[in-house]
Amino acid sequence: MAERLETESRKLLGRLRDAMAGDDPGQARLDKITHLIANSIGCEVCSIYLFRDEETLELCATEGLNPDSVHQTRMRLGEGLVGRVARSRQVVNTADAPSARGFRYMPETGEEVFSSFLGVPIQRLGESLGVLVVQSKEAREFSADEVYALEVVAMVLAEMAELGAFVGEGAAMGARHSQPAMLRGTVAQEGVAEGHIWLHEPRVVVTNPIADDPHREFERLTEAVEELRVGVDKMLALAADKEQAQVLEAYRMFANSKGWMRRMQEDISNGLSAEAAVEKEQSLARARMGQATDNYLRERLSDLDDLSNRLLRILTGQGADTGAEMPADPILVARNIGPAELLDYGRNLRAIILEAGSVGSHAAIVARALAIPLIVHVDRATLEALNGDHVMVDGEQGIVHLRPDDTVVTAFRDKMAMQAAAVERYASIRDKAAETLCGSVVSLHMNAGLMADLPSLEGSGAEGVGLFRTELQFLVRNQMPKRSELSALYARVLDAAGGKPVVFRTLDIGSDKVLPYMKPNDEPNPALGWRAIRVGLDKPGVMRMQLQALIRAANGRPLTVMFPFVAQYEEYTRAHAEVDKAMEREARLGHVLPEALKVGAMLETPSLAFSPQKFFEEVEFLSIGGNDLKQFFFAADRENERVRRRYDTLNVSFLSFIERIVERCDQTDTPLSFCGEDAGRPVEALCFAAIGLRSLSMRPASIGPVKSLLRRSNLDEVRKVIADARHRGDMSVRPAIMDYLRDQG
Ligand code: PEP
Ligand code: MG
Fold first, then answer.
1. What's the gap in Å between 624 CA and the centre of ligand 1?
2. pLDDT score at 274
3. Could you say which ligand is closest to the alpha carbon of residue 360?
């Protein structure tokens, strides 16, 4: 870049800083800034457009256009050249604006006499804040250096906006992060919550975007990058597996990238501080990330983003610990979070909001186990939320009300009060049986996966633990847990259950549950791949260790073990043989054996429902894993947002299939339960009971609502509603059941 321009750019930034130094109101600052930029670049016009809402830009200051149009001229995102810059987040540079694609003439501004137009996005970390425009009468394209200089200015404006420098009257100049915002996402764990924001990674605030001494800034940048490189090398030396090492290699590549360094040095030459230079590059990368369709490129850009964050933390000295105090009712906001980190927060959290994440992620599994409402895929959450912001999370609709206004607060609190009243009603029937009006009794158990779940056994009124998912202990660690650790944990679970039955499901890994310390398998169809019992039988080491731990934990008490994902009879017999072997071994070693042992299987694949009669006679109990069974029955991936809600559990075909399983179990007196998520949905649970299921296992919080509905229902009538729906050829029995329930009041 020409040295003269660099000097000009630094001079301009210096003047901008002076313009910001006084106590002027936001509007006066913007006016000064447009004046300074127009003069410095030698253009007749400089204008600043800011967003007044997500869709609309407003002219907030101008030098050269009609002053009366300030705060009057507005355009929608994508409208006119300014709207085009904002939407595409790309520069528009033209010598002949009226002929440019998308041009829209704004008569009130008097801009018709200006031929050339240069617009650059004002953006911060991928968030669009507005557009900075210069125009001139002379028909000329702006040089690359001029574009670059204007981008640097736009970057500084973005930082200043973030620091609240342009707050004034009207929506476009409202203080940032002060307006109510409604964000949408996907529910990964239901529930409603009110609280205050706690950012998992606090925002880095750059308070000094402009610097006078480029040499000093070069030095600071070089030192910080060196520290970053050393840090990445250290992490690489400690990498747990190939996948992690690959990511770190990519980090190292960026940390050593000459192009990245050169661009940041250029930014510094133009007057930015080292941290502002890092942020400028990060913003550009984020804007590209939003547009990249190629997965590989997106991942690399996201690596660069992470690396930039690390560099910013080194430069600003702002670590994860800002000294801020966690609110008493924290609602966690993060781009993503691992299961171990989530467990560290524990049950303190009222809710969790993630920008990334997925319904089946490990974090979601932990959130579910902790019964904390979780919403994933919440776009812009980390951009919008500030530590301490008031927030209401509607984990039924998947909506986050950030800084809600009074009407939302009132409506939301009403909703919470109604739920609290319902919880109280449930508490009053906690010790009563789930006995229907027609005299059938359904036993209700709870699902668990953590020691922390056990207190719910008492509070929910569950008769026992119908499914203890043992994989969580494996997922949240960085290395395989030891047998002694597992045995101590299982013993504590049994102690806490105080004699109530606990069904331990052996390790169910593979598919979406990948252990951090096991080599991931590259399978085309992981849900149909090498998972659960398949892994256990092919590589029995871990399964044997787990069985021994369970027997030792029982220490003479009754023990119930369940194998996941059994698809055929032979898998069950082989698994049972492993239990027998473990019992023999433990006896040989002098350990006390369980006084009673039950070994069952999960019915999660349609094939098992059609196994020979002998299997049903032999298996000691069965539990329907409806989450998996349903995905295979309908061939609809439970993790795929596009299809996972497509088929109703109350679809007549699926209900008939479950009924068939109930009949087969009745013929052989095989105890049967249902432990998938649907068991905890009252209407589904009612239908399951009507077709003959007498044992359901669900999240503790679902026991009250399910019991309450069962106690108010007559299964003979429900059966009739189902039969009529079938007879009519309804696709799902849901509409008929809902009508019936409405009629019942
Ligand atoms: C199921 O598939 O229904 C089940 C309970 O197992 P998981 O959800 O752990 O796969
Ligand atoms: Mg399953």
1. 9
2. 95
3. 1
